[in-house]
Amino acid sequence: MLLGKWVSNAISAAAHFGIADHLESGPKSPKELAALTATQERLVVSVFLSGKYEFSPQEVVAIERYTMIPIMGWGVRIVHSRSDYPQNFIFWNLAGPEPVLRGIREAGFSPSA
Predict the structure, then answer these.
(1) How many distinct structural domains can be found in the chain?
(2) Taking the model in full, what pTM does it have?
(3) Is residue 45, in this structure, part of any structural domain at all?
(4) Which of 3, 27, 78, 105 has its Cβ near the most Cβ atoms within 10 Å?
(5) CA separation, residue 89 to residues 69, 74, 77, 81, 86 (Å)
(6) Is residue 101 domain-resident?
């Protein structure tokens, strides 16, 4: 029952955002759909459908492991102070959050808000 609702919501979101139209030219790789990059001065999340989101360390309160559905719903939540960005900002990753969190730490990005 829970999985059925999740699938239904995913299909609804795909229709709402016109994902089929955006993929008309062919399939996209995961890196083309969304990417997260970090340096000591900047954390950047690029999302195929909604653009680029940039954070400085002073705008980030915390970067946390986020799990909605174990195994299927892993991500990294960015707790931030930017009022012009979505409040609930989660970068989903099917491989789990640990490689993403490790990459952010190794890049030297450290939240300081």
Answers:
(1) 1
(2) 0.71
(3) yes
(4) 78
(5) 17, 13, 6, 11, 6
(6) yes
